[in-house]
Design brief:
Elements (H helix, E strand, L loop, with lengths): L1 E6 L5 H12 L2 E4 H10 L3 H11 L6 H12 L2 H6 L1 E4 L5 H14 L5 E6 L2 H8 L2 E4 L5 E3 L19 E2 L6 H24 L3 E5 L4 H12 L1
Parallel strand pairs: 1-3, 1-4, 2-3, 4-8
Antiparallel strand pairs: 5-6, 5-7
Helix pairs in contact: 1-9, 2-3, 2-4, 3-4, 4-6, 7-8
Length: 215
């Protein structure tokens, strides 16, 4: 079984990826893992990627695509299939993936798209706050302090948010993701591959819905 998983930051891709890998024994392929392995093993594409990273430059699409193709050409993929996570990020990468799958004799079975209202994701992702005194981390929805305004660890009352966790920054990040992912989802919808899953439900219910699709 060969799959893609898509969804905005905070939608629960990581949790459902773990569920799919555990229950269907496919190879979980994330962009970060692929890059690290290619550079560690000093593959042709890995060395090329390293040369850009060493200069502080973005790795171009053709190198990223090359690293993905190197990984998909390995024997364990033919035996057990894959779950691609974090790739493709652009419509150009999606077209490149189409081409490489044909060249490798592989076929995509489904694109699992976890849907969550962006406003809910802003609350999920911007809820983290940190005690200024001891660094203990909390979340206003999922892990609040036991006594409002008082750190559980050190008893201090002053908290702050990292710039990345502030609502305006989170919303901007989501807007960029929505803009990039929309043409990719449209592309795979046209191919009849997209399976939408409601990500606002209880985690176990999301997993059940994923299982119903894959079974």
């Amino acid at each position: 079984m060969n799959l893609l998983i898509m969804g905005l930051p905070g939608a629960g891709k990581g949790t459902q990826s773990e569920f799919i890998v555990k229950n269907y024994n496919v190879n979980h392929i994330s962009t970060g893992d692929m890059f690290r392995a290619a550079m560690k093993n000093e593959t042709e594409m890995g060395k090329l990627a390293q040369s850009f990273i060493d200069k502080g430059e973005l790795v171009p699409d053709e190198v990223t695509n090359g690293i993905v193709k190197e990984r998909l050409a390995q024997d364990d993929i033919k035996e057990a299939g894959f779950l691609l996570d974090g790739y493709p990020r652009t419509i150009e990468q999606a077209h490149a993936l189409d081409t490489m799958l044909v060249e490798l004799g592989l076929k995509l079975n489904a694109v699992i798209n976890i849907e969550v209202n962006p406003d809910i994701l802003v609350n999920r992702l911007s809820g983290r706050y940190i005690c200024r005194n001891c660094g203990a981390t909390y979340h206003k929805i999922y892990n609040p302090t036991k006594v409002e305004g008082t750190c559980d660890v050190c008893g201090e009352h002053e908290f702050y948010q990292r710039p990345d966790d502030q609502p305006a920054t989170v919303k901007n990040r989501l807007d960029v993701n929505i803009k990039e992912s929309a043409p990719i989802i449209e592309h795979y919808t046209t191919l009849g591959l997209v399976k939408n899953v409601g990500g606002e439900q209880d985690i176990d219910k999301v997993s059940q819905d994923v299982k119903a699709i894959l079974d």
